[in-house]
């Protein structure tokens, strides 16, 4: 076998190609694997960087013609700004939904086919839908927000920032402020309560409406249970109630070019009813509280006659003498005895007394409560009318059991306002009193609160929340246009007077300093026809002894719709107090009532308030946003009373609007936008300025 020739004389050993390729592949595989891990690591870092650092903090959700809604990722807030981002209308913290520690991108619009809607599911906890409506005629843009929980027992909570925004509206509170930024209140049901029994609650007037100085209005859905909390100088929060029914949180945010325009748009949305004025003659007469503590009808009549003679002797003119509910019931019983005695042909004395009562201008007080020790209540339990009172069945098909409550120191039941028969019975009672006592004015108390919720009971749907107050306002309207109610919600369009919350007899925000903030609050919510608290305050029930406080209070009251008295002026001071009382009653009738009547007609047509804050004439002037000790009557009268004890000078700001102001005392003329420092206001006077074109 021939020997094979060596074809590679080189000393280098021969390596086959497949072996080298195999070794090279193993090397490159390791390198490529390392490179892949590095690329993956870099990409992960990049994604994290993009999400945490480089991703835009702001995402535009909806855009209108001049405003837009932005999602701010880091603060988890919805922000409405101008499209140029040079003005922020409102910032809403919505990070309370779901897990507050979880960052939510909130940019994926599930309603992307519709450019005026935004839909999103938040953290699998709640669904949100936001729709934009642009009104080119009024130059307003409204964002309707609906949060709907995905699961049961979810609390929805949105907080509106007070930073750089002065807020107004909501509800009356003890120690009212203007704006509400300095108020604090624990989160609680946003319903009307009696502030005398619940000083930390919300009182009348109450509306689900908040107005911001940046030109923003917040209107909350009226038919869904709502909680409200106020954190002074931080925010106010709207909160739903957790329940099996998965209750939503619904509200609308409207923005306009300034605060006045925002309010005018909100007024049109707040009430679709035509506005009706009450009996304007009511404003011409002062109201005097009868303080006598008596135990029979004849004694009430005697005190009425004595008090009326005293008013006449002090030359205080004609007025309305107000009776509390106890005195009203005594007169009612006296009238009942009189009618029975006439049938028997006796009691000539009573026959003389009642006509004297009918000659006087009196105001009686009624309530929807009835004592459980009265014959009327016991009769209702036997004649089949137990459903005239708020009740609960003892079993699913059981007998109705009236709910017990406490009113004026007595155990009572409360009128079932949803029962037409009960309402007819109550109105017949009013008609009978009106026929036999001849009174024109009726004070209807006791609408505040929800008897079911106060006792941790589930109310019928027709009486949930503040619906009892609204229904009671309907009954009050049927009683006549001179009726006065103590609680107002969703009833500002009705021909009723509303009594303001009683105040302390001092100089604090719960006393004298609270009058103007409360006045502006009521007027903003549409309640312009007011019965203010008595001169000097009446919360304690004691007579006022501070003569200076009485005079300064009187000076403010003279410019309100009605002057009311708890302390007679002859008790508080000597001739000076009496003379000033006569003078300011005359001024009220001569100068104030006519201008109120003028602007009442404007309110009826447009909804513009009669009593206006300083920003009404200068809605872009930040100085006017926090002025709480001056007010306007219409557009032409500025009132600046003294509210500090011992002061005879005060600072006054005259809003600018291209016009001038003239001092009613000195006739001196000032330009709008002028700040008057230490302007003299003697004890017997109040600073009043008239607008000049």
Work out the helix count. Answer: 13
**How many E strands?**
36
Give the proportion of residues in helices.
Answer: 25-40%
Quote the beta fraction: 15-25%
Largest sheet: 8 strands, antiparallel
Shape: globular
Radius of gyration: 35 Å
Strand arrangement within the widest β-sheet reads 1-2-3-4-8-14-13-10
Ends apart, CA distance between termini: 134 Å
Low-confidence stretches: 1-22, 47-54, 336-353
Query: What structural class is derived from the secondary structure elements?
Result: alpha+beta
Please name the CATH topology of the domain at 58-270: Immunoglobulin-like
- CATH class of the domain at 58-270 equals Mainly Beta
The assigned CATH architecture of the domain at 58-270 is Sandwich
Verbal overview:
The chain is α+β, with helices and mostly antiparallel strands and 693 residues long. The protein has a domain at 58-270: Sandwich (Immunoglobulin-like). It has an 8-stranded antiparallel sheet with strand order 1-2-3-4-8-14-13-10, with no helix packed on it. The protein has an 8-stranded parallel sheet with strand order 27-26-25-24-18-17-16-28. A 7-stranded antiparallel sheet has the order 5-6-7-15-12-11-9, covered by helices on one side. The longest helix is centred in the N-terminal third of the chain and has 38 residues, at 17-54. It is globular and about 120 Å long. The model is unreliable at 1-22, 47-54 and 336-353 (pLDDT under 50). Residues 607-691 form the Glycosyl hydrolase family 31 C-terminal domain. The chain crosses the membrane at residues 30-50. This is Glycosyl hydrolase family 31 C-terminal domain-containing protein.
